[in-house]
Design brief:
The complex is a heterotetramer, with two copies of chain A (380 residues) and two copies of chain C (359 residues). Chain A is an alpha/beta fold and 380 residues long. Helix content of chain A is 43%, strand content 8%. Chain A has 13 helices and seven strands. Chain A has helices at 49-74, 88-97, 111-116, 121-124, 126-129, 138-141, 153-166, 185-197, 244-259, 289-297, 300-311, 316-338, 358-379; strands at residues 103-105, 173-178, 201-207, 210-211, 214-215, 236-240, 265-270. In chain A, the strands form two sheets. In chain A, strands 1-2-3-7-6 form a five-stranded parallel sheet, with helices on both faces. A two-stranded antiparallel ribbon of chain A has the order 4-5. In chain A, helix 1 (49-74) packs across helix 2 and helix 2 packs parallel to helix 9. In chain A, 60% of the residues are buried. Mean pLDDT of chain A is 93; it is low at 6-14. Chain C has 359 residues and is of the alpha/beta class. Helices cover 35% and strands 18% of the residues of chain C. Chain C has helices at 3-13, 40-54, 78-82, 94-107, 125-132, 135-138, 168-172, 185-197, 247-259, 277-287, 302-314, 338-341, 345-353; strands spanning 37-39, 58-62, 87-89, 110-114, 148-153, 178-180, 202-207, 214-216, 230-233, 238-242, 264-268, 271-273, 290-297, 323-327. In chain C, strand 10, helix 9 (247-259) and strand 11 form a beta-alpha-beta unit. Chain C is globular. Classes of the chains: A alpha/beta (380), C alpha/beta (359). The structure holds thiamine diphosphate (TPP) (2 copies) and magnesium ion (2 copies).
Chain lengths: 380, 380, 359, 359
Amino acid sequence: MTVLDHRHHTAVPGWLPGATAPRTDPAPLLPDVSPVRVLGTPALEKYDPALLRELYRRLVVGRRYNQQATTLTKQGRLAVYPASTGQEACQVAAALALGEQDWLFPSYRDTLAVVSRGVDPLEALTLLRGNAHTGYDPRAVRTAPLCTPLATQAPHAVGLAHAARLGGEPVVALALLGDGGTSEGDFHEALNFAAVLQAPVVFLVQNNGYAISVPLTAQSAAPTLAHKAVGYGIPGRLVDGNDAPAVHSVLTEAVERARAGGGPTLVEALTYRIEAHTNADDATRYRDDTEVAAWREHDPILLMERALRELGVLDDTLVQDAADEAEALAARMRAEFHADAELDPMSMFTHVFAEPTPQLREQADQLAAELAAEAEVGHR
Amino acid sequence: MTVLDHRHHTAVPGWLPGATAPRTDPAPLLPDVSPVRVLGTPALEKYDPALLRELYRRLVVGRRYNQQATTLTKQGRLAVYPASTGQEACQVAAALALGEQDWLFPSYRDTLAVVSRGVDPLEALTLLRGNAHTGYDPRAVRTAPLCTPLATQAPHAVGLAHAARLGGEPVVALALLGDGGTSEGDFHEALNFAAVLQAPVVFLVQNNGYAISVPLTAQSAAPTLAHKAVGYGIPGRLVDGNDAPAVHSVLTEAVERARAGGGPTLVEALTYRIEAHTNADDATRYRDDTEVAAWREHDPILLMERALRELGVLDDTLVQDAADEAEALAARMRAEFHADAELDPMSMFTHVFAEPTPQLREQADQLAAELAAEAEVGHR
Amino acid sequence: MNEASVAARAAAAATPATRKSTVPTPATPATPTMPTTVSMAQALNSALRDAMRADPAVHVLGEDVGALGGVFRITDGLTAEFGPDRCLDTPLAEAGILGTAVGMAMYGLRPVVEMQFDAFAYPALEQLFSHVAKMRNRTAGRLPLPITVRIPYGGGIGGVEHHSDASEAYYTSTPGLHVVTPATVADAYGLLRASIASDDPVIFLEPKRLYWGKAGFDPAAPVEPIGRAVLRRTGSSAVLITYGPSLPVCLEAAEVAKAEGWDLAVLDLRTLVPFDDETVCRVVRSLGRAVVVHEATGFGGTGAEIAARVTERCFHHLAAPVLRVTGFDIPYPPPMLEHHHLPGVDRILDAVARLQWED
Amino acid sequence: MNEASVAARAAAAATPATRKSTVPTPATPATPTMPTTVSMAQALNSALRDAMRADPAVHVLGEDVGALGGVFRITDGLTAEFGPDRCLDTPLAEAGILGTAVGMAMYGLRPVVEMQFDAFAYPALEQLFSHVAKMRNRTAGRLPLPITVRIPYGGGIGGVEHHSDASEAYYTSTPGLHVVTPATVADAYGLLRASIASDDPVIFLEPKRLYWGKAGFDPAAPVEPIGRAVLRRTGSSAVLITYGPSLPVCLEAAEVAKAEGWDLAVLDLRTLVPFDDETVCRVVRSLGRAVVVHEATGFGGTGAEIAARVTERCFHHLAAPVLRVTGFDIPYPPPMLEHHHLPGVDRILDAVARLQWED
Ligand SMILES: Cc1ncc(C[n+]2csc(CCOP(=O)(O)OP(=O)(O)O)c2C)c(N)n1
Ligand SMILES: Cc1ncc(C[n+]2csc(CCOP(=O)(O)OP(=O)(O)O)c2C)c(N)n1
Ligand SMILES: [Mg+2]
Ligand SMILES: [Mg+2]
């Protein structure tokens, strides 16, 4: 069967005057302008308590992961760390909304989502530690490399999802993006390709209010970023990004629609970057502490703990268990990152091509000779 | 006064939960899904008859221009011609909607708009004749060079409009684009910049149903291309692109809103490319004659003549006058293009930089010597 | 200039004795209707078709590659034979096309991307430089990207601005990319098959102005692999080192040079990356004089690399500096002037004359 | 390595006698608080400020150039002094930034664009290659684009992937662009002022790893104009030809070489386009031996052009081939390995040793 048959170049429907009805009804594509929220609302009661507890546990562990990684930068064990502190609900819900066969396309800020997907922190953090570009096997864990050039991972997600669909596999790709990333041309091209191909892909924009120092008001004049969806003919959804169950349910719905052949969805999650852009950034230059303080009140873990206790699905034991697991992870990270990374300079030549070119072989020989000479000197 | 004061990095409004109302009300931004049309409707009666006659006259002249240019390709006097036959209403209305101080940013298909703006066909067509890249003085005629890399002229229009606004001049920029061009990243980035800067710029997408061979259905899944506007927080408008007064009025409204500080507008005009993509294209490979025939019935000149006669603002004399002017233009084009273009190979070096580099001077000397040697041989 | 005769001459000049195959034996036989004399465009079309027949992972995507068959008809008939799933008319967005191809390759497909013209590949350069060229390396070999990016390049066809850029330097100076450019009909087929079969990304530069030149051609005949230069004409005086669009003019110059007493060899590089130092240096050392010819602008052009590395490696064999004959350091001129920009026979022979024959 | 002392040494090595000014006399005096010893970052900041004071047509735009002052603080304080109209935080889209700058320049402004890092200029390459580099030419001189594109480039600062590309070859091989790269504090100021004052587009490459090196500096002191190379150290054995980020390591190598009996000259190109053939060839002819040093990958790098053109022009003065010491032909490695990739003193001296001293 030809998947793309519906695109066959037959007549051009709807473009003769008198037949200008839209190709898609825009109404269902438009996001509700009040974001989906379930914490603190009766909707929460419909959730599986096991899922709620799982989300909570992962949030707590995730927060500790963020803190530990930030500490490691101060100790010089990580070169740089873009923390997702405050955005853990998005990170954790993104990982949980995917099945094992699905693919995650993270950005540099999304190591927590990668870790939540089961990748060891030591492997997830090589890029930021500085010992290797990508520390995990993307195919094995169905997670693309952390992507730094903004929005460039979005078309990759589309291509992978499209290929999987052509191959008849029920794979969904989830691309993580920031509010700033939505301004890049690649974002636009990816959403348009996804819509035209009806690729099983979900785009999650974590709108944390800033692209480094640039606030959203200087980034976009859209009613919401989710409103961008209608321009591609796909549904847009707005969700409280600090409400883990809400993010999870919006993403799950989008993932399942994509898996069922319903095409892509754009989800905007409203959240906040509590830390500076990275440890190298000075956030006092562009935002007030009062703003941060206000968002600390809307902390995803605080909200979650309060709501789950109210609902009666969380007790002190579970809270303690989560805290213990978090500490265990932190301890493991400290131990692992305080050991020096193993480095092999010759590896620089190994994976440029399937086979090194004659030129690379020459250059590798040159470096090997230099290293041998240095070792010689060191030895003497 | 600081024009961009409203973008000052103060608080981030609307992003704390409980305050998630959209930054712009989306409703007025959404296009009406039935395109604006005035021909054949009572609305036409509200138009200034002088304007209607002017539009008619220009349409007739424009059609003849398209035909003559196409003929010139067959005679080898133009290297290539992307005709706007069938799209004359958009071309003519675009030129007329602008004041003299305004700037037009045309694509390769828009030479008729350039000519309608007052540029001599000989100058407007150098690119397609092959003797020079740009034949006119863009500053003198406030018309950017014909742009071939798709959508790349859109950010130029934004930058120029923004600069004029900063300079306090009431200049509006109008960028012409095709349906295919809306898929490019530059389209997206330009619209976003325009919206954020509130630049006085209007984007007119001539949706002629095809990007070379690719039909709109394979280009976009949007309800209409005008729906893309809402994702930038600017108004989108849909208009019958073969209805010259309707295009003129939608554009004029957008231009005047921009001039008054109301920001950018995206206009989609529904039209059809009657000829092949260019004379080098074979349209039978991807579309049916029946489709073309249907659109010939909805011809912009046919529609206009019928409606104006009905309204009683057009008579045989005016029709004849327009036809005469069209023939005069065609005759002038034949005469001018049948003369060989004057060419100066040394001009290749003149405008690379303000001052030729030493390297370019050497290379110019080399070419001059070669030409002298050739002339010598020719002379003997 | 007669493209067909030049191409035929070029094909004849190849040395069949040294040929060996890297092209995988097609699972299905080559198009049975293959004529014995075909244009380079037809050979490329056959290569795509045969590759798609041989391997279901091969997918073609780009602008107008479907019903139209591409503006140069290189993909003619592919959608008809393989359906739109295998040969996809994409939306008009080159970064999107290449980025989508990256994702497809991550999944395990073997995408062949068509860029419509040289300058229209520029929107995709971020995807190319930051992902395509680096993905294998940045994942320690775990995510190779077997993508072929076909780019019709160069001038000489009367194209208007942005349609004639010889853009190879952008690719050759980017580590992680193979850069291949055929100059003969047989190489067009053989090198494209080899590029598609390669597990590394290949920038496959198609010389537009050779598309219509015809030559006798047998798709089953093996060609030299990627990475090997081929001597198209032997000679005893000096060697013209060239590739792609400039091979015919070099062969013509060598012909004309005979009258001036020079017996010029002509070396067709075929692959710019990886560079065939061995063959190039062997020829240069034996002759002691070399001129590099390409139509791209000279400053920072690929010819600079060729001249520099040949000089580094053959210095004491050189009777004269390695000279370069290239396009001028200017934006590509309007079509009516392009013949003044492109290296012609006279300009090549002027350079040969400067090879210090006196000593 | 001590950046400050290297920069100071570099500044001291400049030959004041040959200096002349191209920097327009500022309408307003230079920042009165200018300390006598400043970092390159501060000098660049002063250059922007002084240019903006001198000419209201100068506008700065880019990502985070406002309140933050840029990630490297080069635009620090500009929005505070000139307001957001003159120093604009743009949306995050490099093609949009450069395309908007093109439109601003068409209107008559003199935009200075900041690209945040080398690899993040790639999305803007279509605008750069197809418009910025060509606009003057394609309009027969009627639409010059006096745009300066500032790009922090190169490695050595422990940056993660995509933050350390030495991308100059893409720019130097594009006709229509000037390419300037300072290596000293004084040049950072003087060349940036001259670039902004230029009526042609200038790619202004700022060596990231020299940002924090300090040197004594007087903004009123004239520097050599764009297009002139400067000998930073005289020598009698051979010359190291370099630019931007590699100047300090070349000066260091020259220092170390003394112990091995070589008296090396060090030539700082300062401008890659237009190239100063005159100065470079004068030095090479007088010494007969040269090594080109840059950190960008070697194959197709700017060093190839330098080696090729120097050889073409100085062939009979050369005692040895012009050698190149460059980064390897690999994607930029992770920070913990970068010192193995970047040319160091030993690698440079190894090349010097290969300059065939025996004859
Ligand atoms: C193409 C590109 N341009 C610029 C940068 C530099 N940069 C890194 S992060 C960043 C801000 C991103 O903001 P956003 O998308 O909102 O993500 P966040 O950091 O808030 O998670 C910028 C400008 C980049 N990585 N890629
Ligand atoms: C960046 C870029 N990619 C590809 C092309 C080649 N090309 C020229 S016209 C065209 C189709 C444009 O379609 P559309 O925008 O609908 O305009 P139309 O030709 O219908 O007026 C294409 C693909 C180009 N000019 N620029
Ligand atoms: Mg953000
Ligand atoms: Mg169209």
